[in-house]
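Hey, quick one: can you model this chain's 3D structure?
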Amino acid sequence: MRKLFGTDGVRGVANLEPMTSETAMQLGRAAAHLFMRRAGRHQIVIGKDTRISGYMLESALTAGICSMGVDVLLVGPMPTPAIAFLTRSLRADAGVVISASHNPYQDNGIKFFSNDGFKLPDEMEARIEQLIVSDEISHLRPTADLIGKAYRLDDADGRYIEWAKRSLPKDLDFQGLKLVVDCANGAAYKVAPTVLRELGAKVDVIGNKPDGMNINAGCGAVHPEQLQEAVRHHKADIGIALDGDADRAIFVCEQ
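Sure thing. Here's the predicted structure for all 255 residues.
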């Protein structure tokens, strides 16, 4: 059996195996079959970072999932922790993140979460691979109204922002703090500054103009030099650098 999954999902150069639209569609079909554990309609959340290849892989995954009769909730660019949260809060059957984290924009990846918001155990990833390489589900072709639908969840940002704020103690706010945030031109370019501002901080933002090809490019947690310079320039108290999918951060002091 070929090995698709590594230590953090499936990764590679976008549009080369295993990060092709064909394999993404197969992953969508296999995952949809695996997560159909109850009666009624099923749904899977899909989020991504800001890479140009995210559109291709998102479309292919959606097609594969819908072809198995499972609905898709599309949330667009969102941090990886947000997809875990939304999968749980929306009571979805699973979640998918399309991202290669801190890697350059040419790469991409696909990672699955179970309905509890945690990464799949190795045995479930192995089962997805088995379903892809075998003919076990090739005959499963729902038709008519049994085909899945795709929906855009327009308030995904707001849901996650409110949850992030509620995760802090009620008596804690950031009034009087001056922060610089480097969003790495990645998934948190909208939500990270909003959360911090709504908590009372004065926030200057860099790395918040994604163009599909500048994620992690000389910025973010992998390259904190720009953040260090911005903290000194703005005389900020703290600097925060995120990576492309905002599941890691580096902090710098005022010096």
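One thing worth noting: Strands lie at 10-13, 43-48, 71-77, 94-98, 107-114, 150-152, 178-182, 202-206, 238-242, 249-253.
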